[in-house]
Amino acid sequence: MLIPCPFCGHRDQAEFAYGGPARALPELDGQDGTHAWRTALYSGYNPRGPVTELWFHANGCESWIQITRDTVTHRITRSCLANPREREP
Amino acid sequence: MTGRFRIPGGLVDRTQPIGFSFNGRELSGLQGDTLASALLANGQRLVGRSFKYHRPRGILSAGPEEPNALVQLHRGARLEPNTKATVTELFAGLAATSQNHLGSLDFDLLAVNDLLSPFLTAGFYYKTFMWPKSFWEKVYEPLIRSSAGLGRLSGEADPDHYDKGFLHCDLLVIGAGPAGLSAALAAGESGARVILADEDFVMGGRLNSETHAVNGQPGHEWAARTVAELAEMETVRLMPRTTVFGAFDHGIYGVLERRRDHLPPLADGSSDSRQPRQILWHIYTKRAILASGSIERPIAFTNNDRPGIMLAGAVRAYANRFGVACGQRVAVFTNNDDGWRTAADLQDKDIDIAAVVDTRSLPDGPPIHLNARVPIHAGEEVVDTRGRRGITKLVLASGKRVRADCLAVSGGWNPSIHLSSHHGGRPVWNDNIAGFVPGERHPPNLSVAGAAGGSLTLGSAFREGTAQAAAVLDSLGYPPSRRPVPEASDEPAAISAFWHVRESRGRAWIDFQNDVTDKDVRLSHREGYRSVEHLKRYTTLGMSTDQGKTANVNGLAAMAKLSGRTIPETGTTVFRPPWTPVAIAAFAGRSRGRDFRPVRLTPSHRWAEEQGAVFVETGSWLRAQWFPRPGEHGWRQSVDREVRTTRNTAGFCDVTTLGKIDIKGTDAGTFLDRVYTGTFSTLPIGRVRYGLMLREDGIAYDDGTTARLGESHYLMTTTTANAVLVFRQLEFARQCLWPDLDVHLVSVTDGWAQFSVAGPHSRDLLRTIIDPQHDISNAAFPFMACSELTVCGGCAARLFRISFSGELAYELAVPARFGDSMIRRIAQSGLAFDAVPYGTEALGVMRIEKGHASGNELDGQTTALNLGLSAMVSTKKDFIGMTLAKRPELNRKDAVRLMGFIPVDRAAPLAAGAHFLARDADPTTENDQGWMSSAAHSPILGHDIGIGFIERGHERVGEIVRAWDAVRGRDTDVEIVSPHFLDPKGDRLRG
User: Fold this and answer.
1) Is position A32 within any domain?
2) pTM, entire model
C-alpha cells in the first residue's frame, strides 16, 4: 500500500505502524467512566467498506495520521493528521 | 549443425554453438535457443514423466504456460527443480535432468501407475487411505510422500545472492509484444518515465514467432528496431528477463528480474559471486498497461498427452523463431483460423504437412490457402493417437489414420488476464474469442491492450497499445505522441468453440501437469463436486506450478457441458499472485541468516569484544551476557564472580539499550502525570522518580525512571523491549489525546551511551572520571539525584543516582560518540577499585535478588496490585489506565502478588515457569495458585531464589508450597518470602 502522509506525501506502508481503527477515548477527568472506556476499547467494529483508521509514520515524520480506507479495495479516500488541532476541516 | 531437426531461419545465431547436457548426454544448441528448442532440435521429444501416471511427456508450449517440460537444472546446492525448459535460456554448460521417474526416463518403473489408472482417479486418496486408521502414519503417509512431488530439492542452503530494489515510473508496460512495444514507444516519445518489462530474453513477443509484416518489414525486425529505439530514450527503462508477477495495492507491482539465470553458475568465491542472481523489484507506478498477450489452449481427446502433441502456436514459434522443426510430418488439429497459420508457416519451410483437421465444416473453404497436396479434413476430429514414447499416428472420427510425428493443436487463445484479477476482479466471458477477458474491476490505473484484453489480431494490438498509451499520456499531462500506429493487417481469427472430442473412448487430458482427465471431471460431477472451487480441490485441476494456464478453461468447459450450463454460469477462474512461481530466496533478498534484520550494537561493543564477552540478542540489540575470565568453566562461574565483585567492590555495565525519551515543554509535567501512575509534576529539578505506566485497560505496561533536568525538561527511560512502542504511545497521547499540551518528545536512545556503575566503590570510582568541581558526595548527590555535569575535563555528561542492583549505584551518560572512550576510561579507572564489567546475566541475578520486576513480570497480564506496586499508583489524579484498573476482577482479594521463593532444600534448583500448588493438592488448573516468573542462583545467598506471583502472597510469608514444573519434571517445596532477598531496607543504595 501507499499511504498518503499529509506531511511527507505518498509513502510505502513499510514506513508506517498500524494504530487500529480511529476511536474516541474518554477524557481523563477523574469521573468514573468504566462504561465509556470499556466501549472505547472493546466494542470494536470490522466493517466491509470504508474505515477510518490510525497509522503512525514511524520511519518518517512521526506523525499519527488518520486515513479513510476501504477494506475491500484498499482505496484511501482521505488522509489527515490525527491531531484534532491540525486536522483539516 | 546443431541437431537434425534444425531448419533454416530464426533468431538463433548459427555461429555460436552452445554445449549443454540432458540426463548426462552432451548436446549442442545455438545462441538464442531455450532449453526446449535446443532439445527439440536434437530430437529429444521425451523430456519428463507425468505427475501421477508417469506417462511419457514432451514439450507442449513455448512459454511460461508449460505444464510438461519441467526439468532440474544444475547440480549440488544449486539444484533447481521444476524449471520450465520452455523459458530456460540456453547457456554453455547447462546441465538439465528429467524428473519424476524411478529408473531411467525411457523406462520409468512407476509407469505401472498408468496401468493402475482405473484406481487412481480423482478422490483416490480420500477414499483409499482412510482405513485402517493406524496405517496412516506408518504406511500411507510415507508411501504418498515418497511418490509425491516432481523434482527434488538439494537440501542445502542456496549459495546464490538475491536482492531487492525499488523503482518508480509513470507507466509500467507489462509485456513487450506488439501492444506493449507500441504503447512504450508512444509514451516514451512523449517523455513519460516508462518501464517496459518482459519475461523473455528477446523482446517482441509473438512478433518473433510469427511471419507477419509490420510497416512493410518482417515483424521481428520491426520489434528489434523498436527495442533499439526505446533503448535510446532517456526516460525508458527496458527490463527483459523480467516477470511482473503481482499487481498489488495502489499501483505497486511485484517484479522479478533474472540477472544471472542465463549465465553459467559462478564458482564460489569468484569476484562476481556477490552479484545477485535475481532481483525482486517493487515498482511504484502511476499507470500500467497490461499487454501480456494470450496463451493457446489444447483440445481434450484421447491420448492427447503424448510427446509430439504440441500447441500449434508453439510449433510455429519453434519453426519461425528458433529454426527448429518439431517433426518431419506435422498434422494440425484446430477449431479456429489461427491453427491454419501453423500449417501455412511450416509449409513455407518445406515441412511435410500430414493433414489439417478442423472441427468446423468450413463451408467457405479454408481460411488460409495451403498447397493443394495438403489433405484437409473439415468438420472432422482427432479421436485418438498412437505411439509409446511419442506420437506416430492420429485416428480421426471417421476411422481414418494419419501418420504424423507431430500434432499441432489449437483450441483457441486465452487472454493472459491474470494480473487484471489480482485485486479480486472476476473476468467475464467473451463469446467472440470463446475465452475470458478482464472484467470491470481490475486494479485501478491498469488498462489492458491487445490479446490480453481479447483483441487477438496484430492490427488491433497495435491500435490498442497506441490508444492506451495516449490515454495515459493525457491523464498524466504529457503531450500526445505523434507516432502513427504501426501498420499490420488484421489476419483471420475466427473461432468456433470446441473443447472436447465426444467420441473419445480413453482418457483425454485436461490438466497435463496434474494428470487430470475428462474422466476425473466426470467423476467430480457425479459425486457432487460441481462448482469450480470444488472441482479444483477434488481433482487438483489447475493446482500446480503452472496454475492451470492451459487447463482451467478446458476444465470449466468440461464441467459446463456435464451440468448443462454455459461456461460463465459454471464459474470463472480468479487468479492470485504470483503469475509464475517466485523463489522464496528472492522474497528474502539479503535478509538471510545474520542479515535477517539489522543488528544494533552498543557503544561499548568493540571494547566488550576485546574483553572476550559472550553476547546475547535482546531484541535487535547485541548485549554482553557475561565476561569469561581465564580459568572459569561455564557461565555460572563468571556470572557469580561478576555479581560478588559488584556487590563487594564495584561493577559496570552498558545500559544504553534502555529507551530514552527526551520530554520538553511547559506542560511536560502534566503530560507525565497523565501517562504514569505516579505524579511527576511535583518532582524537584535534579531528582529522579520511578514510574509505572499502565495500558488503557489497566494492565501494567512499562516501567522506568524519569529524571527532571529542568523546569520544563524531563528525561524518561523505558525498558529495552518496549522502547519503540512506548515512544509511539506517548506520541499518540501527545498528538491525538492532548494536543493542547505544550510538550515535545524526542527519542534519544541512540544519542546517549549510558553505563551503570554499581557497588560500594562506585562513588570513588566515578570521582576519578567526573570533573572535580561537581560534588557527588552522599549529601550533595543523594539517592535518586540527577545532574548534567562534565567528565574527563569538560565533556558534557549526565549522572543519575539510580540502582537496579540494589547497590550504591549510578548511571553515567555521555554522547554516544564518546561511549567507547568512556567504557575504556571506566575500565581503566576501575582497576584501582577492583571493578569488573558485568553482563546481562549478572544484571538479571542482581535484580532478582532485589525483587525488581522486569519483562518476565510485566508480561501483559499483571496489574500494579499484582506487582506489589500499589503505592506507586496515585489516587489524587486521573491517568491512562486508572479507570479500568479499578475493575473488580482485577482487585479480587485473592489476587496474585509478587513474592520471593526459596527452596526448602537449599540445594534444589528453581526455574521460571513452575506453577505453585498447595503441598497436598493435585496439579490441576483449579488448584493453580500462581507461577514463578524469574529464578536465578544467588551467589550472595548461596542457593537458588525465585520471584513469582501467588494468590494472597503478602499474607502467606513463611508458608511452604510446591513449585510444580512439569516441563522440567521437578516438584520442589518452596517457602514464600519477601521478594527483597537482599538489603530490604535499602541501606546499601542510600549509603
Assistant:
1) no
2) 0.90
